[in-house]
Structure formats: structure tokens, C-alpha cells
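Write out this protein's structure.
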Amino acid sequence: MRLRLLGAGSTLTLALLAAICAFVAATRGSVELGSVPASVPALQLDFALTPLAAPFLALLAMLGSAVGVWGLRRDRPIDAMLIAAFVAAMLVLLIASSVASFFLSWETMSLVSAFLVAAYHKRRAVRRATWVYLVAAQAGALCILATMLVLATHAGGWSFPAIATAAATLPPSARDAAFILAMLGFGSKAGLLPLHFWLPRAHPVAPPSASAMLSGAMLKVALYALTLVTFNLAAPAPTSWGVALMVVGTLSAIGGVLYALVDHDLKRLLAYHSVENVGIIAIGIGLALVARSTGDLALAALALTAAIFHAINHGLFKGLLFLGSGVVADTEGTVDLERLGGLWSHLVWTGPLFLIGCVAIVGLPPFNGFASEWMTFQSLIASWHAFVPAFALVSLAAVLGLSLTGGLAAACFVKVFGVAFLGHPRRAVTRPIATERFDAATLALMALAVLCTLFGIVPMLVVVPLARVVASTIGVAPPIAAALPVLPIALATLPIAAAIGVLAIERYRRVRTVPTWTCGSPVTPSAQYTATAFSKSLRTIFAFVLLPERRRIVEAGASSWFPKRIVYRTESRDIIDETARRFAALMLQFARRSRALQSGSLRLYVAYSLGAVIVAIALANR
């Protein structure tokens, strides 16, 4: 108990420190925090507050506070301590101002997050997910290190201000190489398709608080780093960078929501929605790069504001949904939608708060997801008149992709909430189900739900500070539409008015209600719609994208914090995930055969070393 309190208290303290740093960076601009000298200049650790990091520090403060409070009752003591270390690593990363400090904190963040993914390591699925995550994380880290080496070598210095100063003279080939490596490194950590394959593996097996921080904060830190490189360290970015980001973002948004729609594990489904929303953010960043390269700084500022605003919003409602799924797992012993039902009757706090998260993530007013997605649509539509026809077609494709994504996301969360929370329990109830009590976990969910509602009803609370942050990066403030302050509330009244009208017509026409008819058979919970039945038609429509389902024996549920049950589960197959699985199997087979080289013979090892020296000398003399 003391260890849990220490972990939660440390997390709350770090969240407060992140909030202070965000406030200072947003109000005072760049502030040097100091450095740790080293005998080798490349290893010097520099730290500074920058305006670009301010919104991400604020997100870390808000989400970290909620997760810290949630962990007072739900987390294991060791998990609470790891969450505190995870928050500390991300905080240091956001204030890093040199290659050494950035890379050291990046690797610390990856290592601590791997321990969180491996929290229930006794299960084989957890070990495999951790292995895949570590491989993806270290491959991405090598790409990030190569990016920093390319930039620092040209600049002749290892601090970010020195690299940014020399960025304008970077050769085009080196600039493009740095971008490609940054896309691979930061894109894999952010979960951009096709580098997302670790996400749907790691999230279902990690504790809920870890999943909330992984999806809500760590993915955004990766996007911050990508923005830092493209807008600062390797600027000015050519138009092709922005187009590439817009294309990858659109594909990620569509692919993520499609695989979420046909999946029935709640946490895996939410992981796929992280791929979708990271894609939306990437579209905004890419559009800002295109607009900046063409000289339309006002449009670039608007697009970047929309992207960062959506990053904050996604962190809040995704944290709410992951923590809510943790309450469901603790209560029901599973997060398999095919086995859930009727949760609204006893999860009297989590049910309404989870519903707010569902409405926010699909982008409906008056919640925060609508405000940022509307700004993204606004910037994309404005680009049709600002860009040449070729670029305008890319923006049009992004608009169509986002429209499709919004509709499919709405269908997905109608499935999630309807199947899990409405109706009747699908399993036989052998004992009375206790009604949920208000506790620390409920307080954390409520805080996130309030923020989702507040930032949707009053979006200017976030947009105005973001405008100052973006102005320091782009050079001009974004043009904010006059309708934004009142638009979410105005649009939210339309469905409410429609519902009132339907009720009035029902009372006027005296619509008759009768019991459900099931061909004369008694109505049982098994007659309810299942998650598979709900998404069957959409699976048929998009069969050309989705691989056939496979059935495998699994332990029911998301982690080992509830009893294990062996069941058959129908699981959707991700094309990229399947490709990554086969590639990993090939690499494991190669590694096993390579063990023959490790014979334990000292003479053989000396021969290897001598051969390597001879090859190095031969290459040096060419």
C-alpha cells in the first residue's frame, strides 16, 4: 500500500512539475534550464523549455494526474512506480535540448514502457507482445539516432539550437535522408501505418493505466519529436514531406478505424483507434508542412494548431476510454465484447463517463473531438483554393478519407457501447452484482470527462494558447473562425431538438410498444446483437482490405488481473500485422541458425575479430 501511494504521489508531483513547465514555456517562450557538461561534447546534456513542447507538457500534466489518481485504487504497487518513472522519462524528453539528452530520455521512455507492457509476463502472449514492442522500439531508436547524427554532423554541434541554426544549409540529400529516418523512427513509436504492428499487440496485455499513458501520452511525444525535426531541426521542409505525411496519415486513419470496427477485444479495438487518430494528427502536420513550403503561413498555422489540438484531445478521451476499460475488466473479468452486456445497470459511474469518451472520440459536438476535427476539415478545405491542383487533390483525398473515418468510427463505438453497456448480461449471473461505488478511479474518469466536455464547449480555452505557441513556430498566428467559440454548442442542439421532436411525434401518434418477438421462442440474452453480427455487413463491404478472420484458443480477457478462462475467440487479421509476424518469424529462424557461430571457442572468436580488422583495413585503403 505504501509503495502504491508513493508511486501515485510521485506521478502527481511530476504532473504538477509538467504543468509548471508548460505554463512557463507558453508565457515566456524559450528558457534555458541548464546543462550537464561532459568531456566529450557529443555527450553533453542540455535542457530547455520551448513553446512547441508546452502543449505536450500540458497534456502530460492532465493525463498524468488522472492516471495517478486512478492508480490509488486500481494499480499494483510496482505498476504505480513504473507509471511514475514513465512520466518522468517523458517529462525529461520534452525539455531535452541536445542529442544526448534527447536520445537518453527516449531510450529510458522506451525501456520503462517495455516493463509496463511486460507487467503480466507469466503469460506467453504478454512475452511475445513485449518482444515485438522491443524490436520495434529499438529499430526505431536506431533510425532516430541516425537522424540526429546526420543533422548534428552537418551542424558541427550537438545542441538543438546549433542544429536548427545550420538546418538551412543542409544538403537536399541529407535533408531527405533525415526525414525518412525520422518518419521510420518516430512514426513507428507513434503508430503510423504500416509501422503500427506493435500497438494492437502491446495495448491488450498492458495494465489499463499503462495503456492510457502509452496511447494518450507516449504516442504524442513521438509526434512532438517528428514536428520538432520537420519544423525546426531539419527546416525548411520541402513540399514532398508534407504530401508524404498527408498520404500516410490518411491511410492510417482509414486502416485503423477499419480494423477497430471488426475487432471485439475492447483494448485492442482502442489501440487501433489510436492508429486512426494519430493518422488524423499526421494529416494536420503534413498539411502545415505543405502550406509552409508554398508560402501560405496562415494556412500552415491553422493546420498545425488543429493537429496539436487534436493531439491533446485524443490524449484525454483515449485516457478516459482505456481507464474505463480497466474498470470493466476488474468488474467483469473480461474485455471481450462478445461476453459483455448490461453493464449500464451496475456500472452507474463508469457507464455515463465511458459514453462521454465514446461520443468525444467519434467527433460529435459538444465534445472536444469535434472541435479539433472540425478545425482539421476547415484547414483542408481552405487548401483547395491555396494549392495547385495536384496538391489540392491530395487534400480532397484527405477530406474524403476523414469523412469515411468519422462514419466508421461512429459505427464502431455504437457497437462498443451498445453491446457492452446496454441490453442484458450475456453470461449467467450466479450472484447479485454490486452497484459501482464512487472511488478514486471514478474521480479520475470524471476529471477526464469534464476536460473532454469543457474543451468541446469552450474550445478557445485551448486554441488561444495554442495560437501563441504555433505563432512562435510558424511566424504568424492562425486565422481562427469567428464561429468556433459557439459552433459546438450550436450543432449539439440539432440532435437534441430532433430527439424532442421524435418524442413529441411519438406521444401525438400514440406509438404502441410491444415485447420483442423471436418467432415464438422465449427471449433470452443470447438473442441480442453481438459485436460480430453488428459489424458483419461492414466487414463484407470492406472484405478487399480485411483478411479473413481466424479462430484461436486464448485466455479470455486482457490481462491476468482477473481469472483466466480458456475460450475460442474470433480475431480480425491485420495485413500489416500478418506481414510483420511472418517477418519476425523469419528473423527468429535466422537468429536460431546463427547460434552456430557462438560455439564458445576463444580461438574462433579471435579469428572473427582478426577477420573484421582485415576487412576494415581493406575498406579504408580503397
